[in-house]
Design goal:
Layout lengths: L1 H25 L12 H34 L1
């Protein structure tokens, strides 16, 4: 029973460390921001910019599809 509990605690510690490392290293936290913003704000701004680009691309594809459908009629 004690072995299982110890295994569970060590497993949770490993998962917590991996989550901590992922959030701090893969989310862009190690890149300095050229505009001097705080890291969380810089990550949020980059996410907003990427979202905006994705939305623009989707709108462009919708317009192209509508234009092609109108031409096909």
């Amino acid at each position: 029973m004690l072995g299982r509990l110890l295994s569970l605690v060590l497993g949770l510690a490993v998962v917590a460390f991996v989550a901590y490392w992922t959030l701090n290293h893969l989310a862009g936290a190690d890149r300095p921001d050229p505009e001097g913003r705080s890291q969380p704000k810089a990550v949020l701004d980059r996410t907003r910019e990427a979202t905006h680009r994705i939305e623009q691309d989707a709108e462009k594809r919708i317009r192209e599809t509508e234009r092609k459908m109108d031409e096909a009629r």
